[in-house]
Amino acid sequence: MTTIQEAVTAAERCTPEFRRDPHPVYAHLRAAAPVCPMTPPHGNETYLITRYEDARAALSDPRLSKDMYGAMDAYRRIFGDSSVALDDNMLNSDGPKHTRLRRLVSSAFTPRRVQALRPRIEETVRGLLDACPAREPVDLLPAFAFPLPIIVICDLLGVPAEDRSQLQRLSTTVARTGFGEEFKRAQQKAEEELHAFFTQLITAKREQPGDDLLSALIAARGGEDGALTQSELVSMAFLLMFAGHKTTAYLIGNAVYHLLSQPQQLRAVRDDPELIHAAVEELVRFDGSVESATFRYATEDVEYGGTLIPKGALVQIALSSANRDSRKFDAPDELDVRRPGNAQDAHLGFGHGSHYCLGAPLARLETQLALTLLFDRFPRMALADPAGGPRWLEVPFPAFRGLAELPVVLDPAG
Length: 414
Ligand code: HEM
Description:
414 residues, alpha+beta, CATH 1.10.630.10, five-stranded mixed β-sheet, three-stranded antiparallel β-sheet, 18 helices, binds protoporphyrin IX containing FE
């Protein structure tokens, strides 16, 4: 990487080199163009924020709106004009509407409900590991990292087991990032099917409530917050599934890959099981699964780091870059599970401010249990092809950071 223009082009076009390792590009941008104007393939003027302090401030800046209906033209051009409303949700709203939705969901999605999932998560992890071949290469993403969160979310929401694979298929289509008409049509169809699916499920839960989050959300009442409308319930169910699936799956994949690649780090966690909490925070900081926060747009002219972001422009906040900023973290390119002061809110891997990840406690619990039980069960586990290097996802837009595959041998013959 030589010039700043090359760095901007790499980030803007999401080049294969940038996908393989975005960090040198981000380092370049942090140094030379920390608030960087660019025009990605979706065609909207976008400002990329890469430094920690700017990113943290931008994540909670009320002048940077999350209500994408306000930026409707840009929004339509990127995501298409869906005929169904799956985005009547927290992540797409500001101010009082956001506060009301977040309060209602938080009254039902409590820490107790998350902790109550622990035995079921453990059982699911063990079941998935039982089903993996131990002595031959297995791709841990489809065999383990992807099914775990979708099973957990389905349990949480009260989705019947027989509907899981349909939900997984639809969620995968909706979560793909891309541009172009054909892509948008496929996504729209999947959104319509998801909308119909959740509408039916909510009707069934209204008639026969269960001990699940969706039933609790239907019943949730909050004084002047009222109750969630049908449209809000459908969007909320969709958001929880969408936000909680690939994010957690890719994090588990990234974490396993880095721990296997750096055995001294893995050994530290194995020698001191309590370290798993700090280790997961460090793994989120070092190579978390959400590379960029969701778009914001400027509702007025805003200045960041001496750069004017004009009213109406989109803002892309590179969390992965902020988490490697040496102004905030010592030796940021080193994975150090014993990193001092790496508290839960030091890194920005789960966002910051009012949109801070609602599912972070669940994501942490799932990842901690997945890693602990995996390495307890298969202490000799190894990458199937360590010399081959990892194959990272190639996506047209850096939303997720994850592996395309993770071939391992769980129990290489000793
Ligand atoms: C490792 C896994 C996860 C990561 C890295 C992650 C990351 C994030 C980030 C960065 C945001 C803020 C986005 C922004 O401000 O633009 C966010 C928001 C959110 N996340 Fe997560 N997430 C994870 C897992 C989950 C899970 C398991 C759930 C739910 C079951 C969930 C539900 C949500 C929701 C509902 C929001 C929106 C909150 C709001 O707008 O107030 N996430 N997440």
